[in-house]
From TrEMBL:
Keywords: Amino-acid biosynthesis, ATP-binding, Cytoplasm, Kinase, Nucleotide-binding, Threonine biosynthesis, Transferase. One of its GO terms (cellular component) is cytoplasm. Pathway: Amino-acid biosynthesis; L-threonine biosynthesis; L-threonine from L-aspartate: step 4/5. Residues 230-297 form the GHMP kinase C-terminal domain. It comes from Candidatus Synechococcus spongiarum LMB bulk15M. Residues 79-161 form the GHMP kinase N-terminal domain. It comes from the Bacteria. This is Homoserine kinase. It is found in: Cytoplasm. It catalyses: L-homoserine + ATP = O-phospho-L-homoserine + ADP + H(+). InterPro entries: GHMP_kinase_C_dom (IPR013750), GHMP_kinase_C_sf (IPR036554), GHMP_kinase_N_dom (IPR006204), Homoserine_kinase (IPR000870), Ribosomal_Su5_D2-typ_SF (IPR020568), Ribsml_uS5_D2-typ_fold_subgr (IPR014721).
Length: 324
């Protein structure tokens, strides 16, 4: 895909309607320290959305949740997945389709692993497939960013890999795929706690100093170099943020304690995953188990249930398949 894209003309609507499809979308981790609102990575943790067209013409969205996560989610027109689906149908000039979605999530929602981005991408891709895929992937990406409001999670959810996304002077989005060395492992520790993205954004200052802005630019450059080369010293120096983490760590219960546990167990660095409360540590494969267990134990010592996943980068994003 050409990494630069802008508004794409609405294509001709296809009559090729499918009755069932399955979409798998990777969970993501955003910011990764200094890449606030522009850097995100797809993780080898996949969420599954099985769609079935319902009979009748009345607008309707039913939701079935499989597995331990997302039991609080509900169907209906206000559901984020369905709102994204409506955006795709509107862009294609197609009337809404009554749908049932059966979902299975690999990580709990509201933990900082891109659950809202997954829902948006799945809704857009699924809705597009149900009407014969008239919308290009570039158009879907444009819609996904518009629905989410920022690109850091939705871009890797859709495309996979490590992505740096910015809006250039022409107001077009530019997506830059970045390298992630195979020796770099992502260890995400997920507590049994929820943190609203709205609350996490509300904690941020309206302006920052020139010194802090320069510090983040420098750290991001160093981090990307470390991720590309697998140089742990560069990764350690690059995982330094002054724009959002100082204001968000107080919102993550016992977060600094968990971060220190990761470092003591051999992590190269540890940051808030997205807006939290999950904590992302980067480490070698040899240290990943010790790092994950140490972070979970740090939360357990504070009577907070937690789990961890040690995974690599997922190089592909959302995958859609028609089901016969």
């Amino acid at each position: 895909m050409d990494p630069t894209f802008a508004t794409i003309p609405t294509p001709v609507v296809s009559d090729n309607i499918c009755e069932r499809c399955v979409i798998t979308v990777p969970a993501t981790t955003a910011n990764i320290g200094p890449g606030f609102d522009c850097l995100g990575a797809a993780l080898q943790l996949n969420n599954r959305f099985s769609l079935r067209r319902l009979t009748g013409q009345e607008e309707r969205f039913d939701l079935v949740v499989d597995g331990p996560y997302g039991a609080h989610l509900r169907g209906g027109k206000d559901n984020l997945f369905y709102r994204a689906a409506r955006c795709a149908w509107d862009a294609a000039g197609h009337p809404p389709i009554p749908l049932e979605a059966r979902i299975s999530l690999s990580a709990p929602p509201a933990r900082g692993l891109g659950s809202s981005a997954c829902a948006i991408v799945a809704g857009l891709c699924g809705a597009n497939m149900m009407i014969g895929e008239p919308l290009s992937r570039e158009k879907l990406l444009e819609l996904a960013i518009a629905v989410e409001g920022h690109p850091d999670n939705v871009v890797p959810s859709l495309l996979g890999g490590l992505c740096l996304t910015s809006r250039i002077t022409s107001q077009r989005w530019r997506v830059v795929p970045c390298a992630w060395h195979e020796r770099v492992r992502a260890v995400v520790a997920i507590p049994d706690l929820r943190l609203s993205t709205v609350d996490a954004r509300r904690a941020l200052p309206r302006s920052v100093s020139l010194q802090d802005a320069v510090s983040n630019l420098s750290a991001l450059t160093v981090l990307l170099s470390g991720l590309r080369s697998g140089n742990d010293a560069l990764i350690t120096d690059g995982l330094h943020d002054t724009l959002h983490e100082p204001y968000r760590w107080p919102l993550v219960p016992h977060g600094p304690h968990v971060r220190q546990a990761a470092l003591s167990a051999g992590a190269w660095g540890a940051v808030i995953s997205g807006s939290g409360p999950a904590v992302l540590a980067l480490s070698s494969r040899e240290a990943e188990v010790n790092v994950g267990q140490a972070m979970v134990q740090a939360w357990h010592s504070q009577e907070v249930e937690a789990q961890y996943h040690a995974v690599g980068l997922q190089h592909f994003g959302a995958v859609c398949k028609v089901v016969d």
